[in-house]
Automatic annotation (TrEMBL):
InterPro entries: XYLT (IPR043538). It is a single-pass type II membrane protein. PANTHER family: XYLOSYLTRANSFERASE 2 (PTHR46025:SF1), XYLOSYLTRANSFERASE OXT (PTHR46025). It comes from the Eukaryota. It is found in: Golgi apparatus membrane. Its main location: Golgi. It comes from Saguinus oedipus. The lineage of its organism: Eukaryota, Metazoa, Chordata, Craniata, Vertebrata. Residues 171-191 are annotated as: Disordered. This is Xylosyltransferase 2.
Amino acid sequence: MQRWARGPNLTATVVWIDPTYVVATSYDITVDTETEVTQYKPPLSRPLRPGPWTVRLLQFWEPLGETRFLVLPLTFNHKLPLRKDDASWLHAGPPHNEYMEQSFQGLSSILNLPAPQLAEEAAQQHAQLTGPALEAWTDGELSSFWSVAGLCAIGPSACPSLEPCRLTSWSSLSPDPKSELGPVKADGRLR
């Protein structure tokens, strides 16, 4: 989903790049002066290769913006720890690196993508991981994207520095005034 500021009509190119620098897809979005939000979910072939993905937004092949997101590997399948034979195909990406019927690899040089050999070797090694090694890789990937912003305690805690979750503004256990509706008041208001 993309959110746009008001401005002149434009056509932007969106490019999705997997962790091994495979150009998974590329498509154009036309944005007119009245458009505020656009969305398109490309029908990528599964399984997606785990790791950091990049989405680039271009106009006339010049960068407008870029974002990264993480596709996590599966650590469990059917409520059981992932087995090696499952991991090898679930984490390898789609057959022949074909996320779409059409190949977009010709864009690699235009996008100045790095040589894929090292990333491909790492992806092949990661596709074989199971158990504690898979969990360690998953944890490492997570920590490269997110860090803990806060902790809270559900109940009484031996750690006095932990604030009760009900007193934080961010916890799902804190009060939510928007969901606490009472009877309608005489002036027609809920609060």
